[in-house]
Amino acid sequence: MRDMEQTYDFILIGGGLAGQSLAWQLLQGPLRGSRIALIDLAPKSSNDRTWCFWEKDPGPFDHLVCRRWNRLQFLSPSFSKSLDISPYTYKMIRGADFYQFMETELAGAPRLDRFYGRVKKWETLADQVLVTLEDGRQIRGSWGFSSLQARPVDKERYHYLDQHFKGWVIRTDTPAFDPSAATFMDFRVPQDKGVSFLYALPLDAHRALVEITFFSNRLFTSEEYDEMLRALIPEFVTPAQYVIEHEEIGAIPMTDFPFPRSEGRVIFIGTAGGHTKPSSGYTFWRLQKNLIKLANQLERTGSPFPLPRIAPARFGLFDSTLLNVLDSGALSAGDLFADLFRHNPPARVLRFLNEETSWLEDLRIMGSVPTYPFLKAFLAELARITGANRESV
Ligand SMILES: Cc1cc2nc3c(=O)[nH]c(=O)nc-3n(C[C@H](O)[C@H](O)[C@H](O)COP(=O)(O)OP(=O)(O)OC[C@H]3O[C@@H](n4cnc5c(N)ncnc54)[C@H](O)[C@@H]3O)c2cc1C
Question: Ligand 1: which residue has its CA nearest to atom 6?
Answer without folding.
Answer: 51
